Please model this.
Amino acid sequence: MRELNLKPLRPYLAACLMALAATSSVLPLTPVWAQTRTLPDFTDLVDEVGPSVVNIRTLERAKASATTSGIDEQMLEFFKRFGIPVPPNMPRGPRAEPGQPGQPDENQPRGVGSGFILTADGYVMTNAHVVDGADEVLVTLTDKREFKAKIIGADKRTDVAVVKIEATGLPAVKIGDISRLRVGEWVMAIGSPFGLENTVTAGIVSAKQRDTGDYLPFIQTDVAINPGNSGGPLINMRGEVVGINSQIYSRSGGFQGISFSIPIDEATRVSEQLRINGKVTRGRIGVQIDQVTKDVAEAIGLGKVQGALVRGVESGAPAEKAGIEAGDIITKFEGKSIDKASDLPRMVGSIKPGTQVTVTVFRRGASKDLSVTIAEVDADKPVRAAAKSESKPPVAGPAQAVGLSVSEITEAQKKDLNVKGGVKIDVADGAAARAGLREGDVIVSIANAEVTGVKGFEAALSKIDKTKNITMLVRRGELAQFVIIRPAR
Model:
């Protein structure tokens, strides 16, 4: 076998080895498995944020009852002696007769929740349902100090409450930026599930902007939340509070992998009003709204599914004064697009009453800007039923081709419904009935054209291709909705 002479290559090989060594010192070779991300360590976060989380116990005053008879006292002793559970309706001990001096009312445990310290001088945030109906609120810190708290204010719509304890130098939380929160991000919760104080659980953000209420786009997580966690903080990996743990989805009453937290930016706005005024003031414009469906968006030429369908306008409300009508699609509020109907009440609610804003509506194929002055939220008014009145005999014509028989509406009905015209449905059959139309409904527009009366309705209907979908705007009582009549196949 012939030997290979490497002597001439030695200088070249030496230079290659030196270059490789220099390169490896700058860019060390790392195994692929070492480049993967490790699971987060929450220990430092617990040390940092834990002292800011509090346990909240609520008490309610037990009212005195009539005197327990001697037989009841003997039976009570019998149950206690033999360890038998006492029946819930059985008196637990002697009480004073009504009107006689006796034992004072006693505060009985009512519930357990969580909260977190907002300010060093003792303001604490929690859920409204934690303190609702409580006669006394007790706040316990992690150093075991206990304080009686004063309820500053609670807002049931957002489930946010603020209480105050008389203490200073408290460790307040850091408030996070909700816009930086990302789906899939690790988060941690601290609270008192089932009364177990300072319990830490963790998970990831499952979704943002989850609709479960009029004024709140919730954060959805898979962090283990149970009764007693309510009011505790949801914390990101920077040690900032990004939400208040508020609700769970459960068929058993316990955690089943889905929990919801109030975004901290929404909660902070509410808490500031509670601290200043003791209540929350919200704006309103006086409309009843619904979602815009894909079929309706296509039928009326809206283009894409967006906005809030105005089904009803309250008499004398800001919307009516501004010219908003039932059947309008509100697509923008102060220049901000409304992607879904639930966006509108949040936008309106955040505006101070008395403020003038611009609302963009889509009506009969065109967009229009209207100026609305925001009013303050008050008690909801009941929806009135459409007034019954005498009507003329049904008029036959092209309407019968789609299963309709219609008649004129009276001036009283026009005034009651706040419409300029329309026709009343006397009979709905066939395709009309399948579309959901029924006797008593009032058709106010057809194919984006106003209906002034029976003649106008018949004329408009006669020009429409009956083999295609027919879009009508219908009033039922004070509510409006789009109905699509589909031809028989």
